[in-house]
């Protein structure tokens, strides 16, 4: 059995500015750096150690991973966020109501079905080729939400709120399926 910790990156400049951020990128804010350091402190306190680490090719995910662990890591393009097409970098107020379905396809982006298939197959390939007991993957909010959606039917733990920055989704993988065991949300009130 393999344990996977799937982590959203820390707060970015575009998060703070309420801009749509998919394939486009912006740097971590000071708060985002503190969030990642707090997540690392939690992992160390709990004695959670990783055998392998992977990240999206986006700078915000790479920087978060480097704050979470000192392990060498592999960058994988298909761990990137949903591609929002020409909506990238625009204000979040332009987003349609959830679910987005295929809304962004008309603007050169991905459909929900495409991003769900991409992130789910990529993570499954990573874990199936790995010999690690504990793996760390840093990705993005909508990508993680779609991975969760793909495996929701197997999991007793349910997500009830928006995925916060640096939250940890703890999955186990066995018998060809992922099971969500825990969602670890941090109390960032001391660093706001």
Radius of gyration: 16 Å
Number of helices: 5
| Annotation, overall tally of beta strands | 6
Strand order within the widest beta sheet? 3-2-4-1-5-6
Low-confidence stretches: none
User: What is the CATH architecture annotation?
Assistant: 3-Layer(aba) Sandwich
CATH superfamily: Phosphoglycerate mutase-like
Run of helices and strands: EHHEHEHEHEE
Strand content is: 15-25%
CATH topology: Rossmann fold
* Mean pLDDT figure: 96
What does the largest sheet look like?
6 strands, mixed
Please tell me what the overall shape is. globular
What structural class do you assign from the helix and strand content?
A: alpha/beta
Number of domains: 1
In CATH, what is the class?
Alpha Beta
Q: Helix coverage percent of residues? A: 25-40%
User: What is the terminal separation in angstroms?
Assistant: 38 Å
Q: Which assembly state applies to the chains in this document?
A: single chain
Provide an overview of this structure.
- This is Phosphoglycerate mutase.
- It holds the Pfam family His_Phos_1.
- GO terms for molecular function: phosphatase activity.
- Substrate binds at residues 8-15, 60.
- The chain has helices at residues 13-16, 30-45, 59-68, 112-129, 141-151, and strands at residues 2-8, 52-55, 74-75, 134-139, 168-174, 177-184.
- The chain has 192 residues and is of the alpha/beta class.
- It has a single domain, classed as Rossmann fold, CATH 3.40.50.
- Strands 3-2-4-1-5-6 form a six-stranded mixed beta sheet.
- Strand 5 and strand 6 (177-184) form a beta hairpin.
- Helix 4 (112-129) crosses helix 5 (141-151).
């Amino acid at each position: 059995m393999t344990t996977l910790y799937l982590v959203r990156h820390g707060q970015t400049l575009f998060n703070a500015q309420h801009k749509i951020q998919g394939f486009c990128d912006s740097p971590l804010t000071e708060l985002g750096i503190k969030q990642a350091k707090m997540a690392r402190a939690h992992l160390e306190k709990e004695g959670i150690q990783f055998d392998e680490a992977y990240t999206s090719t986006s700078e915000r995910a790479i920087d978060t991973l480097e704050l979470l662990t000192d392990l060498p890591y592999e960058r994988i393009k298909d761990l990137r966020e949903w591609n929002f097409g020409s909506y990238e970098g625009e204000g979040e107020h332009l987003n349609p109501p959830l679910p987005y379905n295929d809304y962004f396809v008309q603007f050169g982006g991905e459909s929900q079905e495409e991003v769900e298939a991409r992130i789910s197959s990529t993570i499954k390939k990573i874990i199936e080729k790995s010999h690690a007991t504990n793996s760390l993957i840093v990705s993005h909010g909508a990508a993680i939400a779609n991975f969760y959606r793909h495996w929701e039917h197997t999991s007793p733990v349910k997500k009830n709120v928006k995925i916060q920055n640096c939250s940890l989704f703890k999955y186990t993988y066995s018998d060809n399926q992922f099971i969500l065991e825990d969602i670890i949300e941090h109390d960032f009130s001391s660093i706001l």
